[in-house]
Amino acid sequence: MVLSTVKRKTSTPLNGTEHEVNVDEEDGFILRDRLLPLIICLLRTDKVPAVLRMYRDTLITVMKASIKSTVAEMLPVLISKPIDSDSVTGDRAADSDAGGQSLANKLRSLSSEGFVQLLSAIFSIVQVHLQQAAEVKKIVQWIMRNLDGNISPDDRNPVVQHGGSVDLSQEKDYDVTSRVSNTVTRTPTKLPLFQGKTNDMSSINSIKNIRADVLRESTEAVFAACDAAHGRWAKLLGVRAALHPKLRLQEFLIIYNITEEFIAATEKVGGRLGYNIRGILQQQSKQFVEYQHSVRMAKIKAVLDQETWIAVDVPEEFQAIVLSLSSTDFPVNGMEMPSNDNNSKLSEDGVSTSQESAHSTENNVENSNGTSTTSNENKVESTSQTENSVAGHVRPVAQTIVLGGVGYHMVNCGLILLKMLSEYVDISKCLPSLSFEVVQRVVEILKHFNTRTCQLVLGAGAMQVSGLKSITSKHLALASQIISFIHSLIPDIRRVLFLKIPEARKHLLMSELDRVTQDYKVHRDEIHTKLVQIMRERLLANLRKLPQIMESWNGPDDNDSQPSLFAKAVTKEVTYLHRILSQILLEVDLQAIFRQVVQIFHSHITEAFSKLEISSPQAKNRLCRDVQHILVCIRKLPAQNFSSEPVRNYGLLDEFLAEKFGTKVDG
């Protein structure tokens, strides 16, 4: 009856799992009426323990046979249903095409939805058998509690402890007692099973021993039935062990949850923990986490190697991820299932990339590591309006992603990493028992992202793998933004992931994440140092040309009132660097970088000018114009608090101008 009902339900979509199987009340009374005289007779002949052992073996056989028949009858129904091509893995699709399949192959050919329906049917069948077994156990226990024989008060409610068992059958003893009393009205309150003196010590001990044996065997019978059901369920999971790690999170979670419900329901009836099936479920959960992590590691490696370090627009969904992670009331329980909307998925090829069309007036100047700063300005042409159109609607996008009130420019790999981190958080919330393993995987992917980004940008590896002609200051600035963003996001990631981790295990993970956070900070500082180094190398390259340029200054016909080529080149390059970095970097980073740049300009240019041999008024005037021109440029650079002087960015070059020419440049 139950199986036919379940089979009818498979023709409708699975909107949830219902496992409440109500046994007819009349059937319960009939069962009790039939069992009571039989058990009393067996007690008189001292055969109850032996019969209960036979009953236990029968329960195991019936349980296995029922599950087997359920699988045999349900599989044709489920296999004949249309297969959702979106949720079919390669292995399962191959199995579904094979004719004359084995039972294992048929089980593997089921969709995840079909497999859940099969588990739900088995759940219902198992509950029917376990409820009947539990009913028998309650009747036996009621009879044993009412044995006549001057039993002490402590023996009236025995709790059997055997092999770590916990007797949970006492919850409805009053209900069972009242029902049995109503059906057997002529049975006295105490059941006189022994003739003669019942207060004899040997009789009392005999009754106690019989009671202990009967209670133990009745409990063992129910537990054995539960254990058999656990074994069959575990085998079904084992057959599909290779498929479950490849499922989407929401699909795996449905299987995980129904198994958890099954374990909880059967353990409540059986009174003992199902260590075997719990081990299988935990093992498959770990395999799921490991497979999902390996897929993401492979993807982030490929994405990083394809990254061209071009700024991209930020779709609204990514800003929503940041808001959810940084929220103080981040939902941990009752999490919404991850969306199946394909439109919300991030492609590896990029997210509405902003394409740069550069019109070059001068060649890029490369430094020793292949990095360079371009002397031309790049125009950014946004294509977000066309690339973010979905079903005729423009999806909201932004130029930056905001975290803690600070906007960060993003590149494609940064958005993909953010999406992956949110998926790790989802896994941790859905599988809290594996939160420790999830944090370890997050640490690994963060380490790889940081290391590989350093190799590609600072190490100029992107010139080989991505085909970039050079690593520009703009590439460095964007890399700095991504690293700074992840560095600022790590505390929120840690807070969310640590919610389900026991205190005793947090210390190790916290030290790991602290090291990763420090690595990101060091990486960001190295990028800023590289930007300063680029400007220093460009300045030194121009200073090497200064003696040759100065030769024309001493000529009597030198009436040019413009700054020299040296002064123009130096100021043009530092102005360009300032313009590029100010469009991308945070103000605090700009200040830190240009404080060092201003210091380098003051020291190196002053030293070079001090060594020049000025032999004519024309050369002296030219040098004065160059110093003034350079100082005007320095005044505009964002190097707040560079010196204690009231004049902005005051330094050695100002002192040189005042000493040699008796003049100054106002701030």
- Sheet bearing the most strands, described? 3 strands, mixed
**Going across the major beta sheet, what is the strand order?**
3-4-11
- Gross morphology is rod-shaped
Please tell me the overall pLDDT.
78
Structure described in brief:
One of its GO terms (biological process) is protein transport. A hairpin with a 2-residue loop joins strand 6 and strand 7. 63% of the residues lie in helices and 4% in strands.
From the structure above, extract its key features:
667 residues, mainly alpha, Monooxygenase, three-stranded mixed β-sheet, two-stranded antiparallel sheet, rod-shaped, golgi apparatus, transport, protein transport
Topology:
Layout: H1 2-9, H2 25-44, H3 48-79, H4 90-96, H5 103-109, H6 112-145, H7 173-183, H8 201-239, H9 249-270, H10 275-306, E1 314-315, H11 316-326, E2 355-358, E3 365-366, E4 371-373, E5 378-381, H12 384-387, E6 389-390, E7 393-394, E8 397-398, E9 401-403, E10 406-408, H13 412-430, H14 435-458, H15 462-465, E11 471-472, H16 473-497, H17 503-544, H18 546-550, H19 565-584, H20 587-610, H21 617-635, H22 652-661
Parallel strand pairs: 4-11
Antiparallel strand pairs: 1-8, 2-5, 3-4, 6-7, 9-10
Helix pairs in contact: 1-6, 2-6, 3-6, 3-8, 4-5, 6-8, 6-9, 8-9, 8-10, 9-10, 10-13, 10-14, 11-13, 13-14, 13-16, 14-16, 14-17, 16-17, 16-19, 17-19, 17-20, 19-21, 20-22, 21-22
Protein name: Vacuolar protein sorting-associated protein 54 C-terminal domain-containing protein
Organism: Triticum aestivum
Biased composition (Polar residues): 339-358
